[in-house]
Structure formats: structure tokens, C-alpha cells
Amino acid sequence: MSKQVLCFGEVLWDTFSDGKKVGGAPLNVAQHLRQQGIDALMVSRVGTDQSGDELMDFLNQRQLASPLIQLDDRLPTCEVTVQLNEAGHATYTIPEPVSWDNIQPTDELTTQAQAASAIVFGSLACRGKNTRTTLLDLLSETRIPLRIFDVNLRAPHYDLDTIETLAAMANVIKMNEEEADLLIGSSQQSLQNKITEFQHKFHVDTICVTRGENGAMIWHDEKFYEHPGFPVQVADTVGAGDSFLATLVAGLLNAQPIPDTLEKACKVGSFVASQRGANPTYPAEM
Distance (Å, rounded) from C-alpha 96 to C-alpha 127? Predict the structure, then answer.
């Protein structure tokens, strides 16, 4: 039986100064999983408006549309304003409420979750009660083996109580260094000590902290693994972390050695950062 991953959360339009691109961290992860041969299904909600129609066209073209993409006739499809600084690092202005703030429980979602090998979820879609309740109930009522929490903080759209609740329901957590400082504190500690402290609190099987151009560190099976990253000329950082996470998830699902998975995740993330947009096609050697 092929492994299937549910990617739960936001689908949206990232609007840049020169146009717009389909985005949302869970959707980016789903597209990168597909590039790496893993079956991924999006769980989200779009508005019944022109932006929603265009987004559904995109999802249909890439075989990512399914009954798990709900339609909302009250809330609009999300359009995020993205600003890039001179180094290509992005900041986001995210409207609220939008359609993916209202993801509802359905029989189809429960059925798919019961058959899934993994679920990927983040903090942004849990900013509102409706979607947060749907996700927490889904995690409580089903036995999805691999539960990946992509912390992915977007101020001001999170609170620490929700972050801790999501962390307690995950067995894999991925965050960046800034998020590690916020959630663990004590910035004078070494990164290994921060990860150890976090693991003792939440008893997570796998913790990954990304460090931008400096690679990443993973704690897995009571061992630390580290990669220094790959030098790259950054075009923009949109989607780089999502591609890293998808590669990590694919490696875990396929039981690949962690050092190999970590190296490939850093390589893929660096390549995506060197391209415009979140979902470039990988070169054959990737």
C-alpha cells in the first residue's frame, strides 16, 4: 500500500510586487512531496469567489484537488501580501478571517485520516477556533502514525498555549532557530541544549531546527545529527523551509538514514531558495 500524507491548513495566493503565486506552507509541502514520489492530499477550504476558482483550477491541474478541499460561501479566499527585502527574505501580511479559518470536520476527512501514514500541520491555520478544533479533534480521534508539526510562526497569528497543545500531539516537530528561541528561551544555551530541553518537555520522537544558510540540526532516536548547509545565491526564501520539511517527511516515511535525509533536505531547501517562488521543479540530479 502506498504511503499517503495529509497536508492540513492554509491554501492561498502569495501576492508579490510583480504578480501572484499559489502558496501556503501545507500546500507547498504537498507539492514538494509529490515531486519526491509521495502521495499527498490537501485538507483546506477556499472561498466561492474568483480567487477561489483560480486556486481550484491550479489544484486540479496538479491533481491536488479532492473532496478534502472545502468550499466556503461566506469567507473569502486568502490573498497574502509578500514583501521581500534586499536579501530575498520574505515578510507576510495575512488577512483575517479567510476561508481556511473555517475548515470543518467531515466523514471524508475522518476516513482519509484513518488511512493516512502521516499528517503535516502548522500553527497559522490554528489561529481561529473552527479550524483549530477540527484539527485537534482529528488528531485525538484517529491514529495517524506520523504527526508532523511545522511550527512556522507568523506574528501576530499565534499564541503559546496553542503552540504547546499542537507540540504535545506531534511526534515530529520542525522549527527554525528564531522559533526555538521563542518557544524554549535561554538564547545563551547551545542549540543542542535547547533541543534537549524541548524534548524533555514534549517527549517528541524527532525534533528538527533549521538554521537558514547554516543548515540544520536533528534530534532523532536519542542522537543528534547536523549538516552545515549549502552556499547559495538567494532569489527568495519563500517555500525553502517547506521543501526542506517535505524532504524530511519523505525520508522518515521511507526509513532512509537520517544523515542522508538531512543532507538531501538541506540541498533541496538551498535549491528552492535560489529560485523565485516556492515550488520550482528540481533538476534531475536532485
Answer: 9
Q: In angstroms, rounded to a whole number, what is the distance separating the alpha carbons of residues 272 and 242? A: 9
Q: How far is CA 136 from CA 21, 110, 133, in A?
A: 29, 12, 5
Determine the pLDDT at residue 2: 76
The mean pLDDT value for 108-113 works out to 96
Strands 206-210 and 216-220 turn out to be: antiparallel
Contacts of 137 (CB under 8 A, 6+ apart): 105
Flag whether pLDDT at 123 surpasses 60.
Answer: yes
- Is the pLDDT at 271 greater than 90? The verdict is yes
Buried b / exposed e across 141-178, counting CB within 10 Å, b at 16+?
A: ebebebbbbbbbbbeeebeeeebeebbebbbbbbbbbe
Q: What is the reported pLDDT for 1?
A: 47
